[in-house]
Design goal:
46% of the residues lie in helices and 18% in strands. It is α/β, with parallel strands linked by helices. The protein has 3 domains: 119 residues, Probable tRNA modification gtpase trme, domain 1 (Gyrase A, domain 2, 2-Layer Sandwich), CATH 3.30.1360.120; 140 residues, tRNA modification GTPase MnmE domain 2 (Four Helix Bundle (Hemerythrin (Met), subunit A), Up-down Bundle); 162 residues, P-loop containing nucleotide triphosphate hydrolases (Rossmann fold, 3-Layer(aba) Sandwich), CATH 3.40.50. The strands form 2 sheets. A 7-stranded mixed beta sheet has the order 3-4-5-6-2-1-7. A 6-stranded mixed beta sheet has the order 9-10-8-11-12-13, with helices on both faces. A hairpin with a 2-residue loop joins strand 9 and strand 10. Helix 4 runs antiparallel to helix 5 and helix 6 runs antiparallel to helix 15. It is flat, with a radius of gyration of 29 Å.
């Protein structure tokens, strides 16, 4: 690791009330003492706030009235000596301050270099370091909770626990390699249950990957159905705003409308589509084809039908044309126009992929909360990461998949009573794969690839 002292602007580009210039490295305090003047000018004490002026050392020119906060190693973000200059948030001013710091001996920090140093100095493991970027990019409550759980080490602790169990099994196998005469042959009955439990725990982790991906990217929800059943009204109700034009004329919506919203802090992308029907109108035909493509790319389909004018035969035919593997919620709309409670449409509910039926009024909002909960249930998002940590990064998913495959190979070799040397090879490979999650076994190329995606200043 480079021991240079580094510096960068740590706050986002643009104007703001406060802008921060961060310095890290062995020379951080000396540089700070040259560019900052405070009352008394006594030696800087760690974790205290100093009010003073940022100055040009050569001329004494005051650049800004600012705060300085020093952090002595190892009690700092990077594990090194760190100084933060809290200035007024003018982009021009911050640029002058950071260039001054560079002239006094620091060099420009590379993207993610502060967090890289935190990782290399043992302040964070690799999964926690990735969570720093997730926290910065969080756009919803659920994304924030997921990033915080990763940053606080929920996945790391789970990976460590799995690897500790795995090392215990590996130690047993290697003992039979080194002391085969004293210990005799490996007994599959003694090790197979432990291996099987590990595989099941990895399966549970992988099961969370689908949820993690939806949380990271946003669940895609397609609203489909016949013309004039209230699809655009439902879009507006979900968004809480008049986004789509609503009329009594069938075929009003001719193109796919895509908007973002949240349910219980979970990011969603909803697509309002053209009504599905036979049409001679060329423009409407294009809209209908786009509606079908939107349904094919969705994580969930809301199939809307009109409670006041049901056409179950047509709706059933349309439902059968939609992808069977994508879950569907039946949404009976215009509840406010009924005098008696509606009955569940058994003919539609029996269609492959239909998971629930909800009755709503998109116009009055009746039933929307029930629909929200049904959407979360259909996407398995109702209990985010309460038990098993969520896998939100493809890198983590790949590591768990690799470890699981090596453990399956080891279990097969054990049950076939193959030499323990072969079993040990797969167990070591599984341990190496899991170790990449926290960085214990990560190589330099992997570490470099992760941190190059960070922003400068973190």
């Amino acid at each position: 690791m480079s021991t240079d002292t580094i510096a960068a602007i740590a706050t986002p580009p643009g104007e703001g009330g406060v802008g921060i210039v961060r310095i890290s490295g062995a020379e951080a305090f000396k540089i700070a003492e040259r560019v900052f003047r405070w009352r008394g000018n006594k030696p800087l004490q760690s974790h205290r706030v100093y009010f003073g002026a940022v100055i040009e050392p050569a001329t004494g020119e005051v650049l800004d009235r600012a705060l300085l906060i020093p952090f002595r190693a190892p009690r700092s973000y990077t594990g090194e000596d760190v100084v933060e200059l809290h200035c007024h948030g003018s982009p021009y001013l911050l640029r002058r301050v950071v260039e001054l710091v560079w002239r006094e001996g620091a060099r420009p920090a590379q993207p993610g270099e502060f967090t890289l140093r935190a990782f290399l100095n043992g302040k964070l493991d690799l999964a926690q370091a990735e969570a720093v970027a997730d926290l910065i990019r969080a756009r919803s409550e659920a994304q924030l909770r997921s990033a915080l759980a990763l940053h606080e080490g929920k996945l790391s602790r789970h990976a460590h626990a799995l690897n500790d169990t795995l090392l215990g099994i590996l130690a047993t196998v290697e003992a039979h390699i080194d002391f085969s005469e004293e210990l005799g042959e490996l007994d599959p009955a003694s090790l197979a249950p432990d291996l099987q439990r590990l595989i099941e725990q990895l399966d549970a982790l992988l099961h969370s990957a689908h949820t993690g991906r939806l949380l990271r990217e946003g669940a895609r929800i397609a609203i489909v159905g016949r013309p004039n059943v209230g699809k655009s009204s439902l879009l507006n109700a979900l968004l809480g705003t008049e986004r789509a034009i609503v009329t009594d004329i069938p075929g009003t919506t001719r193109d796919t409308i895509e908007e973002s919203f949240q349910i219980a802090g979970v990011p969603m992308v909803v697509l309002d589509t053209a009504g599905l029907r036979e049409s001679a109108d060329v423009v409407e035909q294009i809209g209908i084809e786009r509606a079908r493509r939107a349904a094919e790319r969705a994580n969930l389909i809301l199939f809307v039908y009109d409670l006041t004018a049901p056409d179950l035969e047509t709706d059933a035919r349309l439902l059968h044309t939609l992808p069977s593997e994508i879950p569907k919620l039946l949404v009976g709309n215009k509840l406010d126009l009924l005098d008696v409670p509606p009955a569940a449409p058994e003919r539609l509910a029996s269609t492959t992929g239909v998971v629930d039926t909800v009755f709503i009024s998109a116009r009055t909002g009746t039933g929307l909360e029930t629909l929200h909960q049904a959407i979360l249930n259909a996407l398995n998002l109702q209990r985010l990461g309460e038990e098993t940590p969520l896998l939100t990064h493809q890198r983590h998913i790949h590591a768990v998949e690799q470890a699981k495959q090596h453990l399956r190979n080891a279990l097969d070799s054990l049950q076939q009573r193959l030499p323990p040397d072969l079993i040990a090879v797969d167990l070591r490979s599984a341990w190496l794969a899991l170790g990449t999650i926290t960085g214990e076994t990560a190589d330099e190329a992997l570490i470099e690839r992760i941190f190059r995606d960070f922003c400068i200043g973190k």
